[in-house]
Every structure is written in structure tokens, then in C-alpha cells.
Hints:
The chain is mainly alpha-helical. The protein has 2 domains: 1-182, no CATH class; 186-353, no CATH class. It has helices at residues 6-34, 56-67, 70-74, 81-114, 120-145, 157-182, 192-218, 245-251, 253-279, 285-290, 293-311, 322-347; strands at residues 189-190, 348-349. A two-stranded parallel ribbon has the order 1-2. The protein is flat, with a radius of gyration of 22 Å. The two termini are 17 Å apart.
Amino acid sequence: MQKIDRSSKLVATWLLIGVGMTVIQIVLGGITRLTGSGLSITQWDVVTGALPPLNEQRWALEFNKYRQTPQFQYLNFEFTVSDFKFIFFWEWFHRLWARTIGLVFAAGFIYFLIKRHFKKEMVQPLLFLFALGALQGVIGWVMVASGLTGDAIYVKPTRLALHFIFALGLLSYTYWFALSLLVKPQQIIINSGIRKWNLALIVLLILQLLYGALMAGHKAANIAATWPTINGAWIPAHLFNGNSFLINAIDNKIWVHFVHRGLAYLLLVMISLWSLKLYKTKGGILFNYLRTMPIAIILIQVLLGVLTVLSSAHIIAGTWGMFEWMAELHQLIGMLLLLVLVTILYVVRPQQR
């Protein structure tokens, strides 16, 4: 039985720490969005922005910058410095955590390089990983900048969705890299049929998560705070608003809501059928453990989705309530489902290497 060498274990542990920190970062992004904090910091100062204002003069200066934004002028014009400090904290902490992730990866990279723990085959994935991290930072700022001009009081939903999907891509790639160092050859099973289903489910889930981000960006949950129907209809009115199909698909709130629900039901059915195939497939301990997870997670995810929609009827501005809790948990479980599907994709191969 092939064993995993010490260097691979150390590098994989470092990568998994990064995976955990990235999950926390995405959760913080959700809190930032739900508290309306994303536009509170109007500049992108990579180094000097690491510290919050340390005196009242600095707070007044930052607040004055925020007062020039459309969000303050059209939405939060009654804000005091105290209100501003609350939303500033979440955006600052979100950015600080991103900086911390960068430092953890940089420090680990230097340490493992000096100690010669990196193997030749690790270099290219590591370079790609750092490039993805830098790109995600740029996309994050492009997203924020979209809400600081004109009459925008929030960031553009499409850019929020892009930022979210790229974060999931970074998360999945880092996790896949760690799996490549931890999963033993004898734990791999061969089944092309299960793998094809797996790939289809991942594509469908990514589309579902993309529409979830559009739901969040458009604040479309409470446009139909009913279940199982959408405002009393199975197929709601105004699904098409007269624009092109692409514009309708990303900007029409009721379309976004309808598609997000529909994809959830489709995922539930497909994962249920796939799980039957998984249970009929022989595998090792790792596979037998993994095959129980997709159906359990999707059932929890659908339940949280329903509770999120129903609780959206009782949103109170500036208050963290049931809707916010359900929305955050819904996002977190969605990420967990993605990671489980990625794990099974790694373990199940169409043919032997």
C-alpha cells in the first residue's frame, strides 16, 4: 500500500488551511453583503488599508468619503458616524481576512521553498493558484467600484456573481490540489458512468450558485416570499421583460428567482437518482463514506432555501434576523455541496491512470 510522504502531507495541510480560510472569507463576503457594508470603504489601499481609522479625525475623513457615494446620498443619508463604523467594520474585516489569506500562503510558500518540500510537479499548480488569488482581488475591487459611481446604491449583481463564482473556483482548485497530495491511488475507483453524472451535477450546481449570487445582488428573495408557488403561480407572470434573452436572464428579478428555484428542484431530483447509483457501486472506505453525503446535503440545502424565501417577507433594514441567518447558512451549505462533489470527482475516474 502506497504511503503519503511527509512533504506532501505538510503542503496539503497548508492548502487545506487555505481552503478553510477561503470558506470563512466567502462567509464574510455574505455578511458584508447582507449588512450593506460593501461600499463603506471607497478606496483600495492594499497596504495602508490594513489598519482601520485610529482616531476620530480619521473616522470623520473616511465618513466624508462615504458621504460622496450614491449609496449614502440616495439610501443611507440619515447615517451617523456610529452607523458608518458598523458597516465599515464588516468591509474592513472582509478585506483584512483576504490579506491574511495572502500572508498565510506567502509565508507557507517561502517556508516550504526553503525547506525543499515542494516537488517539481507542485510548482505549476502553485503559480496558477497565486494567479487566481490575485485575479480574485482585482475582481473584488472592480465589483466594489461598480457601486461607487452614477446612481448605483449597490454593486452590480453581475459583478457580484462574477466575484462569487471566481471565489468558488479558487476554493475548488485549492481543494483539488490538496486532494492530489492526500488521496492514495488505492482509494481511486473506476466508473465512467458515475463520473459523467458527477460532471453534469457540478456544472448544474455552478449555474445554480451563479443564480444564487444574482438573487443576492438583485435582492430578489422577497420578490416572491411564498412557497411552493411563486406568488400563487407555478409559472409566474413577467418572466420576460421585452429585452434580449441574455439581459432578461441576468437582470429580470422574477426570472432570476424562478430559475434559481427550478435549478434547485432539478438538482434535488438528479442527486437523488445519482445517489441510487452511488449506493449500488462498490468502493473503498473513502468512497463509501462520500456516497452518503450528496443526498443529505441537498435536502438540507433545499430546506434552507425554502426558509430563506419565506423569511424574506420579514426583512427589517439594519437588523440581523431570521432571513440573514438562513441566507448565510444556505450559502455555506451550497459551498459544502460543491466541495463534496469535487471530492467524489477526484476519487471516481473514468479510467486508470
